[in-house]
Amino acid sequence: VEITFVDHAGTARSVNAEEGSTIMETALKNDIPGIDGECGGACSCATCHVYIPEEWQSAVGEPSPMEEDMLDFASDVRPNSRLSCQIKVRPELDGLVVNTPVRQG
Ligand code: FES
């Protein structure tokens, strides 16, 4: 499953993600800058904040209420903000593009 991370400066990095892992884990494993994931994916740090481009929003789905609450702690939150540890890699997400914020926390 190919996932492309685009940083705030527009640099794109495409990596191969394992099905069943999360977008946050994929980023960490591949040394993608701009994603920290300090809590290890427990939805309690908001340092795995990403933006989902409009064309991918329906495939990715909606955040859970717990994720919505945690997103309040991220900086520069936008309507398309998500916590990447709450997005599981699925075959339907092949080709997914996510944008990483200028900074976490
Ligand atoms: Fe901590 Fe996602 S890794 S909220």
Automatic annotation (TrEMBL):
Pfam families recorded: Fer2
Cofactor: [2Fe-2S] cluster
Keyword entries, A-Z: 2Fe-2S, Iron, Iron-sulfur, Metal-binding
Keyword Lipid biosynthesis: no
CDD domains for the chain: fer2
Residue span(s) of domain 2Fe-2S ferredoxin-type: 1-104
Tagged with keyword Iron-sulfur: yes
Chain ranges passing through the membrane: none
Ranges in coiled-coil conformation: none
Family membership noted in the UniProt record: Belongs to the adrenodoxin/putidaredoxin family.
Protein name per the record: 2Fe-2S iron-sulfur cluster-binding protein
Gene source species: Hohaiivirga grylli
